[in-house]
TrEMBL record:
InterPro entries: DCN-prot, DCN1-like_PONY, EF-hand-dom_pair, PONY_dom
The species this protein was found in: Rhodamnia argentea
Extent of Low complexity compositional bias: 13-33
Protein origin, superkingdom: Eukaryota
UniProt name for this protein: Defective in cullin neddylation protein
Amino acid sequence: MRRSSTKKTGQPASTASLTSSASDPFRSASSKASSKELERIDQLFYTYSDGSSGLIDPEGIEALCSDMEVDHTDVRILMLAWKMRAERQGYFTLDEWRRGLKSLRADTVSKLKKALPELEKEVRRPSNFVDFHAYSFRYCLTEEKQKSIDIESICELLDLVLGSLYRAQVDYFVEYLKTQTDYKVVNMDQWMGFLRFCNEISFPDFGNYNPELAWPLILDNFVEWMREKQG
């Protein structure tokens, strides 16, 4: 009876062992492939990083853009920084680089270039775009404790981030910002207000704009300026 019992209890262990050994090669192969991919991602990083700082700096980013045949001022480079969650403008750390390229499944320049159109589609989704819009402002805060951005830089950022989606609004925003004298800088609340304005307000008639609602004062002034222009 003991032998029979041992046989029965041993059988599942034997089956489990067979199952385990059968699945291990797949697990092992997947792990090896992932490891190789990470190696190639790291090698690509060191191709563009500065040896002394251990970072990809502005010069390295320009070299990467050149190899991808993409202008370094292309909004997709900002989208790439967003995907990496890069903290410092013009610099990528190894961890940031790994995070972005692993997510994009890109371990060569060619694959990274091919991933850009899909990345753009991902960013353009409404659920992601609000986050990207906020990120683009934070990314431009280059000084410690800085909370606002000068008008000239904001005009460039508006054109880069919102220009392709809201061309008419952005052109008038920029014209207003460059001619007004009340504001020398723009803060995050005002920056996010621009996007909400473009999303919600009919343009150029402003039929549904209500200054009594919680809009930043700069947008009240902008609407007033536009209505004066329209006569």
